[in-house]
Design a protein that fits this description.
Length: 527
């Protein structure tokens, strides 16, 4: 069955199952959303989850800052309100439109002094954090709260505000000061990014003084925006069941494990979904050649195009390993770099697409210079090339040290590109190892290894190379992965059920926190 048709049926059933339950009004706040602006998976989720929730007949509206790129990509926008907010010299404008290709209403917060600049949403064109990020996202949070409390002249009050990552962490905190506030949910997409700022910035934000305390926003002599979400929200979610458990441990908790353990009864892991309208090889317009499980041989045209793009010899028989991602320690790229001498002894080519830390960019460039016929590197952010890399590679490398959910492994399953992943977070929840019993039962979808050590990764790579040469087994592995269904319908229903559950709980206005203990240095706790 065509996957669009399948998704439609699942959605229709989910909608019917909801019967005549009342429609909820939800405000979904985030700092990036595809196709408006994207630096990583948060944008993929924020661009597709609201649409899936809207399909479940809920009234969900998206709100994010009006960065110039987002405005440019948003299509027709209308000025619907101007409000005065602490922290902004000039009135803040609210622009209204639709998230492209959806029925989801969109609000863009237009505060030119903070958001109208060249560069990324969080960093300068040179890749440094904007020095006024605290003020920028505090202003955004105040704007979200004004909309949430129906104080922005929009004649609409949500029942619930769904916040995402540290950039929206102050929203649950600020709303806790309001009587008759909407319920709040805070989703952790990545606990390693916390929005930490010094005392001077805290003072400048004019927040309640007693929020500089362990029980509220203070974290090792800094103000922590993410703690706003973790301490004050009515419910916390994160993006996979395994990560929901991991973040309550010292290894993954980034110093916040005590707080998360304390709130464990209100912490749920919900696996992200995939927008198969964007990520399906059968109808991907960004590919030179589309293909399905029945026409897998057409995948080879994408392989040849990928080899051509990266200047590698166009050989169909050599295994092509690909990696796309932010070049940061989390993603375990250094494990691959450590193995390069070993990998070059094997019949394989490697392609990398990413931007990030200078040391990793330099190491990749150097590897490419030294082995131009074996290693292809593009230090770039390129959406179209990311699709080609998913389609043209034979194996997708994702050896993350930790991975709250991860989307690239889900895309690679659908693109018949079995992933190699570490047994952590959403990777553990989505990839089934190609061990003997799983292969025998036709349930295997990729290669899973345990510890973030080069030797363990190498063993997984060797297992993949071995199976790659057994074409019948390989095809079975590819087709099993393609059949896996990670569409949003199931997760979106879970979110809607959770919204209903949260709305039934009485709302508190006091923080739910034991502080963070033990007080260890954040740098020690970071993985
Ligand atoms: P994270 O959010 O931690 O970066 P995910 O796997 O959840 O990781 O999502 C990453 C998303 O960003 C995917 O859609 C991936 O294709 C995209 N992406 C990351 N780096 C690049 C890049 N250099 N060029 C194009 N897309 C990229
Ligand atoms: C974060 C995580 C990633 C997750 C994404 C979307 O950036 O690093 O694992 O898939 O958010 O939730």
């Amino acid at each position: 069955m065509d996957s669009l048709c399948f998704e439609y049926i699942v959605l229709t059933q989910a909608t019917l199952n909801r019967g005549n339950l009342p429609v909820m009004d939800i405000l979904f706040a985030c700092s990036e959303a595809h196709p408006l602006i994207k630096t990583g998976g948060l944008a993929d989720v924020s661009g597709s989850l609201p649409r899936a929730i809207k399909n479940l007949k809920q009234e969900i509206r998206l709100i994010l800052p009006a960065y110039p790129v987002a405005r440019g990509n948003a299509g027709i926008l209308r000025l619907v309100s101007e409000i005065s907010l602490p922290g902004s010299q000039r009135p803040v404008r609210i622009l209204h439109g639709r998230l492209p290709h959806t029925r989801v209403q969109l609000y863009l917060i237009d505060a030119p002094e903070y958001f109208d600049r060249a560069g990324g949403p969080y960093s300068t064109p040179a890749g440094k954090d904007w020095p006024d990020n605290a003020a920028r996202f505090a202003l955004f949070a105040r704007a979200v709260c004004a909309v949430a409390m129906n104080q922005a002249g929009l004649d609409w009050k949500p029942d619930l505000v769904h916040c995402n990552d540290w950039q929206t962490g102050l929203v649950p905190a600020l709303l806790s000061l309001q009587a008759k506030r909407p319920a709040t949910i805070f989703t952790i997409h990545n606990l390693a990014y916390q929005g930490l700022f010094g005392w001077d910035q805290f003072k400048a934000l004019q927040l309640p003084h007693d929020w500089w305390s362990l029980d509220t926003l203070e974290f090792h002599d800094k103000i922590s925006f993410i703690k706003g979400g973790l301490v004050f929200s009515d419910w916390i979610t994160t993006v996979s069941p395994t990560y929901a458990k991991e973040i309550r441990t010292t290894e993954f908790g980034c110093g916040l494990e005590g707080l998360l353990e304390h709130r464990k009864d209100r912490l749920t892991g919900i696996l992200n979904g995939v927008d198969y309208q964007v990520w399906s090889p059968g109808r991907d317009r960004l590919l030179p050649q589309t293909y399905t499980a029945r026409t897998l041989e057409s995948k080879l045209k994408n392989k040849a195009a990928l080899q051509g793009t990266f200047g590698l010899p166009a050989k169909a028989e050599i295994a092509l390993f690909g990696h796309v991602g932010r070049l940061v320690e989390q993603k375990g790229l250094d494990l691959i770099l450590d193995l390069l001498p070993e990998l070059l002894k094997r019949p394989m080519q490697l392609v990398f697409l990413g931007t990030g830390e200078a040391r990793l960019e330099q190491a990749l460039r150097k590897a490419h210079r030294q082995h131009q016929d074996r290693i292809g590197v593009q230090i770039d952010y390129d959406e179209k090339l990311a699709h080609l890399l998913e389609a043209g590679s034979d194996v997708f490398l994702m050896p993350s040290r930790f991975e709250p959910c991860g989307l690239n492994q889900l895309y690679s399953l659908r693109y018949a590109t079995p992933p190699i992943v570490r047994n952590t977070g959403g990777l553990a929840d989505s990839v089934i190892d190609a061990n003997g019993p799983n292969l025998y039962q036709h349930t295997a979808t990729g290669f899973v290894f345990e510890q973030a050590r080069p030797r363990q990764l190498l063993r997984a790579i060797d297992r993949a190379l071995n199976l790659f040469n057994r074409q019948d087994v390989w095809k079975d592995l590819q087709q099993t992965g393609m059949r896996e269904d990670f569409s949003w319908s199931r997760s979106a229903s879970t979110y809607v059920d959770l919204y209903e559950q949260v709305l039934k709980h009485p709302r508190t206005t006091t923080p739910d926190s034991p502080g963070t203990s033990p007080r260890q240095k954040l740098s020690e706790a970071l993985i």
